[in-house]
Amino acid sequence: MSVIRLPLVVGDASVRRRVEQLFSAMWQVKRALQRDARDVAGAYWAGGVRRERDVKAWRADLGLSRTGLERRAYQHLERSRWLSDHVSKALVMHQADEVWAGVARHLHPDASGRRAGRPKTGTWWEYTRIPGRARSHTTERKWETFRLHGTLAGHLEAFRHPALPPSVTTPAQAAGLAPGMGVLAQPRRMPVPARPAGRIPTKTTDARGRGRSRAASWFDHTGPLTVVFAGGPTGGGDIVLPVRLPQGAGRWPYLLHYLNDPSRWHKIDLVRRRDPAAPGGWTYEAHLMILASGHASPATHARRRQAAALKRVGGVDGNVSNLAVVSLPATLDPDDGGVCSDRITLTQQERHALAAGRRKARGRQRALDRSRRASNPQQYQRSRRQKARDEHRKAAGLPPKAVTVPAGPRRTTATGTPRQAYRRDTLSTGYRNLRARHSAMAASAAEASHHRAKKIAAAVVAAHGPHLTVEDCDIRTWFRLWGRACSATTPGRLIAALAAECTATGGRLLRASTFTTALSQHCLCGRRAPKSLRQRTHHCDPADGGCGLRGDRDLVSAALAAFTILTDPDAPPPPAWTTIGPGPPRSSSPKGCKKPCPSQPHRSPRPRAGPARQPNPAGTPFPGNRRPLLGETPDPAPWQPRMRPDPHPSGPRPKAHAGTTRPHTGRPRTHIRDKS
Ligand SMILES: [Zn+2]
């Protein structure tokens, strides 16, 4: 399965209004369902006696099931007459299924015993995707909700570039052109194709031998590509949204892969994206899922083939500021190649770009604050300077100056809460536009960082091969402690991209638990070499019986990661113990590693002043309640040591970074003993 984004043209004001109303209606359905789900889940956990007596009956009574939630969705649709002008039953049912997926993650723990928190209600701004329904691949002309009609050939025929050679008539020929040539010339205002009319002869005959025919439908449309939504049962007919395709020949191999074979088209989600430049503030896209893997160019295929042929194994050491990669030949024979190392940090240029971006973001945030203060001056006090000026003027017998932007703190009640909630503030149009620009910039920066991670991952795998091992660290804690540095280097995104690239190249990124291996606290000779987080060089001191190895701390621990062997990379967590070298799996965390290794940030939450609060053991009644009511609510994420390797793709729950591994055979093994 893979997805292509198809930009949609919503040019006409009336069509845009209908699409906006569709999103508004669907968001209200989703919000109603999320509120229902939250209430029912609350009732489910509160009814402890019923739950213990017969959990199935208790759930059935509450209607806490997929069908129960779907039934609620239908009820909302039936009770609200206006909803049926905009949304269809299939759409509402699909939305209920999506909400149920979140509730199911809350009710049932996964393989590692974690469960998601209570269902929440999302906001209007987060609601960007209307899930569509998959098309039937057994029944012809059966595709509910959003459908894609037309063909790529029809699109090429309708919008040929005037300079395109007449010999190019098929999409395959257009995909073979040199990059830089124009294939399409789509007008700024795309014409909306008309629904096919008339009757289409079916190739059957009736009893008298006369040919049968049927009414033409959108399924007979072979012109330009178009997304069609049939609308609600009482609505104003089809919503027809033309698709705008990339026009240059460079993108046509990609289009050919996704769009040339309509039998592979599977499902369409309607997605909106904030765009301050677009009329209405949103642009619309169709995310088409096809039943095939994603597109990779011939150059990518060649690079991956070359990387897969490298007989190398490597280790990766993730860090807040950089990523160290060390690889060596799998045979460990110096004739097969030397040891390679790489360090991925931000370049000077990237640092400058990040600093400039931050400066601009800060400027926008200040402008937003100024605008809010100017629109709601009665909610803010004057600053100390403004007050002092008033007093000086008063002493000089001058009238006080009018203050348009009070610069002091927000006016609060005696308890310290704002006198007026922020959501009730008056906001100017300029404020809204700037806020939209601000969030669009943030989205664009995230996209750029994702792209950078993919490029780096491709380069790393091309140089070190696809068989890598990384220490599995909890990057969320890094973000808690060093958020600013992490958001610049994005270590989690880099490791996720590496895992995806390893899998695509036929290898696998294995994750070894940092709690059992403590790679940065060991030397390559197997000796334990404890060091604090500040110590950036590794030195195995011969005076203490060490081997004398001196080197960069990150590179040494990356080299050590290359030697880590997972006893069972596919074992479901917990406990999947990892060992270095032979010997029985360790039954508990190694000595001297009772607390998290100093090389890794502590798992504890944000450091705070005062004595640490002791969490109540599970099942402790909430103070003030006789019966265990609130204390019984399950902990949404009980802590587990994170040592989950990527699950195998053939497993029951494939994940984005699943892959296969080649067993590391014939490698010398290192004994590591804890001497502490
Ligand atoms: Zn050593």
Automatic annotation (TrEMBL):
Which region ranges are annotated with the description Disordered? 191-214, 351-426, 566-676
Compositional bias of kind Low complexity: 406-419, 588-597
Query: What spans are recorded as compositionally biased (Pro residues)?
Result: 570-587
Recorded protein name is Transposase
State the organism named in the record: Streptomyces lonegramiae
